[in-house]
Amino acid sequence: MSTGLIIAAPHSGSGKTTLTLGLLRALSRMGHGVRGAKSGPDYIDPHFHEAACGAPCRNLDAWAMTPDRIRSLAQGDGTLIVEGAMGLFDGAPPEGRGATADLARILGLPVVLVVDAGRMAQSIAPLVAGFAGHDPAVRIAGVILNNVGSDRHEGMLRKALAPLAIPVLGAAARSAALSRPSRHLGLVQAGEQPDLESFLESAADAVAAAVDLATIVALAAPLAPVAAAPGLPPPAQKIAVARDAAFAFSYPHMLDDWRRAGAEILPFSPLADDPVPPCDLVFLPGGYPELHAGRLAGNNIFMQSLKDATENTDIYGECGGYMVLGDRLTDGEGRHHAMAGLLRLETSFARRQLHLGYRSLIAGRGPFCGAWAGHEFHYATTLRAEGDPLFKAEDAEGTALPDMGLRLGRVCGSFAHLIDRPLP
Asked: Does domain 238-420 have CATH number 3.40.50.880?
């Protein structure tokens, strides 16, 4: 039977990702069947999970997905290690829906709390006690101490926690060597890091030395078998999906649903100047096109094939893909790059502005017609957007937002990333 547990923390930056990757690699190289999952809308961490253990990683999103959908996606062989997002009880406003704690309730899994103890000693006890007692339905099964400064420091922390009777599963020392480069959306992508293997091995060595792996495996709770939840129907029969360092942000559960329903997925690389393959729908996912804008602008085979495809093919772009469909993209250094020119859209990273949050979306037309739960996370500024909007939009609190995206003929897109059909 498959088992699972959740790695969470009181706040972001506690070391969840590094510890999760170290656990996945350490257990994998011991021969223990293990796989990862990520809480919430994250495109980057799942690729690190996959590199760490060789198994596909799924997003489990308690805001955008139904409980049945989450239970279905969590199924699989071996031990599932779910990496939380932000703090354990942090979710979307107003009541925190979509928090990692919601996954613990839905899946009935224990939580291992990673505490950054670098700037505390005895104060760790009331912090952990507060998290352990906050919700009886969320069980803190153990604690991993991170950023421990010395043996003496570790001793003080363990002594303070002893009266709580919550197992201390390990203590990891401070290590600058285990930090990873980041950019504005999070870590630099796994495929862009030439030293990824050595980092994963170092993380596994550190975790194996600091953490009681056998006890962690024993803490994992059974995942009850469930019937597969209905998936997303494909928007077309033959779908060309851009896939490279500039267009890496597509959700595996969505592509898997399309394949299971009989659709043909045709990957191609705009960065390699691949032409769009013959298809019924072109899907340009998000990613980092601003880092490759000059190269994309000069890839005439790709750009011309995209323009030619509009005669008989629907074209849809999300976030980065949406920007590439526009007239012009200005990069962070203020350089202007001509894009496909299929939408009357100009965007810029020279004036960065954060747009972040869950979105409830309704499209009246296009390949993704109907209601969707989605997410927006980007720093691009829209300089010009002219034409018919694609989505009616609300934020997580149900407040109406300006219409999102553009639609022109068979071409459409927006800054929103679609996740799943909304809760009923």
From this structure: yes
Q: How far is CA 254 from CA 208, 210, 233, 240, 360, in A?
A: 34, 37, 9, 14, 17
Beta strands 406-408 and 411-414 are antiparallel
Kindly give, in sequence order, each residue whose CB lies less than 8 Å from that of residue 351, ignoring residues fewer than 6 positions away: 381
Return mean pLDDT, the chain. Answer: 94
pLDDT band for position 1 (50/70/90)?
confident
Identified catalytic residue from 53, 319, 369, 412: 319
Write out the two tokens for 192: 């862009």
Q: What are phi and psi of 48, to 5 degrees?
A: -65, -40
> Cα–Cα distance between 278 and 266 in angstroms, integer?
9
The Cα 276–Cα 266 span in angstroms is: 9
Q: Class of the 3-222 domain? A: alpha beta
Residue 123 one-letter amino acid:
S
State phi, psi for 105 to the nearest 5 degrees.
Answer: -70, -45
Active site residue 319: yes
How many C-alpha atoms does 21 have within 13 Å on its Cβ side? 24
Q: Average pLDDT for residues 328-333, to the nearest whole number?
A: 94
Domain limits, CATH 3.40.50.300, in the chain: 3-222
- Does the pTM surpass 0.85? The reply is yes
Nearest to 392 by CA among 412, 409, 372, 377: 372
Nearest to 318 by CA among 408, 404, 190, 192: 404
* Strands 406-408 vs 140-148: parallel, antiparallel or unpaired: unpaired
The runs of H, that is alpha helices, within 176-244 are: 196-210, 213-219
User: What SS3 state is found at 368?
Assistant: coil
Characterize 37-73 residue by residue with b for buried, 16 or more Cβ atoms within 10 angstroms of its Cβ, and e for exposed: bbbbbbbbbbbbbbbbbebebbbbbbbbbbbebbbbb
pLDDT band at residue 87, thresholds of 50, 70 and 90?
Answer: very high
Residue with tokens 């906050």: 134
Question: pLDDT at position 187, please?
Answer: 45
